[in-house]
Amino acid sequence: MREFDVSLITSNIKEMCIQANHFLSDDMKEVFVKAVDSEESDLGKKVLNQLSENLEIAGSEMIPICQDTGMAVVFIKVGQEVHFTGGNLEDAINEGVRQGYVEGYLRKSVVDDPIIRNNTKDNTPAIVHYSIVEGDKVEITVAPKGFGSENMSRVFMLKPADGIEGVKEAILTAVKDAGPNACPPMVVGVGIGGDFEKSAIMAKQALTRHLEDKPQIDWVRDLEDEMLEKINSLGIGPGGLGGKNTALAVNVNTYPTHIAGLPVAINICCHVNRHVTRSL
Amino acid sequence: MDKKISMPLSEEEALSLRAGDYVYITGTIYTARDAAHKRMDETLARGEELPFDIKGSCIYYMGPSPAREGRPIGSAGPTTASRMDKYAPKLLDLGLRAMIGKGKRSQAVRDAIVRNKAVYFAAVGGAGAILSQRIKKSEVIAYDDLGTEAIRKLYVEDFPVIVVSDTEGNSLY
After folding, report:
1. What is the ipTM of this complex?
2. CB distance A94 to A125 below 8 Å
């Protein structure tokens, strides 16, 4: 059993919130550079150049990449040999978010009630997804999620007979409907299988996957490639102003499902696909 | 075509803009997003005055991140305009001349744009850091309790936007 003081969770989450909102991961930067090089539309190129400059300014001047610094989504994998001490784990996570958003000059975008809507003024609570895994480590991923693109996300409860063609149609429908609202070029996270909520969580998790990590299953890998190509021939383009770069990546996660169902969730993310992972 | 315009925008200048023009704005604009629009709508329903002179004005759909010391504002890119579609036609009929946001507008807004010779601009979504640097002054003028959603009076210089909907009803998306 490893004793693990939750104050370490707080201090790391604070830093990760600030880091994620000012610096993109290297794999995201790489696909971005490719997009700038390959764009043919004049307006599209202008938009991508502006976004490249924006990334540089964000890091050098410490101005968040986007003013929507998101709702903090936290994936936490806890080794079953870990014993947390020093307080409640979820409180420690929220304290990290609070410190990160208050001290890091990040926008407070969370309201306490979906109808009454008073701002909580510290961006808490976070959305926390726990899993218990082998070992004595704690792996945390912080993924601040903006709502321009979140609002364009969808869950389709398809029928088994809809098959792979139904899945493709669902993905394209979500992307077309998102259009300029989701701040393209976007990253498309897809969860196929499981049940209603499992598909949605997989879609969110897919957004945090390193872009060089490819799925093990052949049809999933092919689906990612085909969807990226099809989405980029829609013509939506950077900023929705036309061009060939509508999506930077399509990441698909899958899970076993019920004999009667084929859930498909599409979680759209803008080009500011923020996520930071640390293993403690 | 690249153009430079000043705010507040004259009707004449609005008429000269075409969907697809890349425009640099200099002058005074106001921020308002979801919660501020709801309050302005309630204010009008009570027959009271809006917190700024709407005639000829430009509203930027934006809620900034907090400013660091010595800076006027934090990250400051556009939010999705369609969430303000419920309120925009009434404001346009009262004289609102321009809006800056991102994404598609409803038919009712597009009709009100043509009817009032107004313009809808898009700023680049997710370019909040670079746009922040084009904002030279920022002052909360109403609804301070709304935090990031308060109404701010901004002075911008060479603020880059693209004309999406022009006075003749052309639309870029």
Report:
1. 0.92
2. yes
